[in-house]
Write a structure and sequence with these properties.
single chain; 342 residues; alpha/beta; Rossmann fold; UDP-galactose 4-epimerase, domain 1; 3-stranded parallel sheet; 13 helices; 41% helix; globular; disordered N terminus; disordered C terminus; binds 2-amino-3-ketobutyric acid
Length: 342
């Protein structure tokens, strides 16, 4: 039985009839995976969601089944989905932008090889598939403000190249094999529950953690570097809402622009100062991550997502700041940039 009527019953964009889902999540112990797996289990039932990752154990995967799966091993991935009786694969395992730039070969193998394996499993087993794209799928020549849903995509990073290729591969599997593939171009995602790992937008998470820990932060992105961001609860709801959306309303699939705010480091610092007035922001620019950020849009146009499946974001910058600071205060804090880039 579905436990949470919010997603399915009250939403005009969602299909009327909904079946019991059996879901396999890859990369379930990553930043999106932890929050999304917990939320999916809250909706569809604990046993309906098989969490998988290349490392870790049941203890880390909240309550519910867990299996070690290396997405580079196509047979293992397919077997996990088959054994679970999956009808849906949420494929999250991937390297983020900064790590991908330092290990481009591995990034290609994992981000594209892993996705191909997930798509093949979906094709063979008749599963639906979600995988995230990113603002990194854009690059030189893309309008930076009001970045349209359909526009030039010429990224110059290996991460961005893997994201555009992933969008095209997902479209290919939809058109050629009828696999129900859907995706979101995520902006920087901010969560208090799990640390990000190796991204460029991660400075925002670091800033909140450092604000609570030490009252100061040195940003590796410079002033005026505007990027799209979204709070994790909104990202998680977006995935579920898109996956439950009526397919006949979707003109696009892979992948939809989504965003909740366009902010630079100073905007986040100002928001933090409403709660921590002495918070100090300094800059120590990392040329590699600054160059990555400079190639990305400032502010996406998410109107296609709003029109086709009712995308909405509940949290603005101050709402997110209040929730982040409340949740981070009084709990063990994870590390800053240095830890994140390992
Ligand atoms: C990153 O910074 O690499 C990610 C992303 C925007 O895809 N957060």
């Amino acid at each position: 039985m579905l436990k949470d009527p919010y997603v399915v019953l009250k939403d005009p964009y969602v299909r009327r009839e909904i079946n019991m889902r059996r879901i396999l999540v890859t990369g379930a112990l990553g930043q999106i995976g932890r929050d999304l797996t917990a939320r999916l289990r809250g909706i569809y039932g604990h046993d309906a969601v098989l969490a998988s990752d290349i490392r870790g154990d049941h203890g880390e995967a909240s309550s519910g089944p867990f299996r070690l799966v290396d997405v580079a091993d196509g047979d293992a991935l397919c077997e996990a989905a088959k054994d679970h009786g999956a009808d849906t694969i949420i494929h999250l395992a991937a390297l983020l932008s900064a790590t991908a730039e330092s290990k481009p070969m591995l990034a290609w193998q994992l981000n594209i090889g892993g996705l191909l394996n997930a798509l093949e499993a979906a094709r063979v087993l008749g599963c639906r598939l979600f995988t995230p794209s990113s603002i990194a799928a854009f690059g030189a020549g893309t309008p930076k403000k009001g970045t349209p849903q359909d526009t030039l995509q010429r990224p110059s990073t290996m991460y961005g190249i893997s994201k555009v290729s992933g969008e095209l591969l997902c479209d290919y599997y939809f058109h050629k094999y009828g696999v129900d593939t859907r995706g979101l171009r995520f902006p920087g995602l901010i969560s208090h529950a799990a640390p990000p790992g190796g991204g460029t937008t991660d400075y925002a998470v670091d800033m909140y953690v450092s604000a609570v820990k030490s009252g100061q932060y040195r940003s590796y992105l410079g002033p005026g570097t505007f990027l799209d961001m979204m709070y994790m609860p909104d990202a998680v709801e977006s995935v579920i809402r898109l996956m439950e959306a009526d397919a006949t309303r979707l003109k696009h699939r892979n992948a939809f622009n989504v965003t909740a705010m366009s902010v630079d480091p100073e905007a986040i610092a100002s928001s933090i100062r409403r709660r921590i007035p002495d918070f100090r922001l300094e800059y120590d620019i990392d040329p590699v991550r600054q160059a990555i950020a400079d190639g990305w849009p400032d502010a996406l146009d998410a109107s296609a997502a709003r029109e086709e499946w009712g995308f909405r974001a509940k949290y603005d910058l101050d709402g997110m700041t209040d929730d982040m600071l409340s949740n981070l205060s009084g709990k063990p804090l994870y590390g800053g940039n240095e830890a994140i880039l390992q």
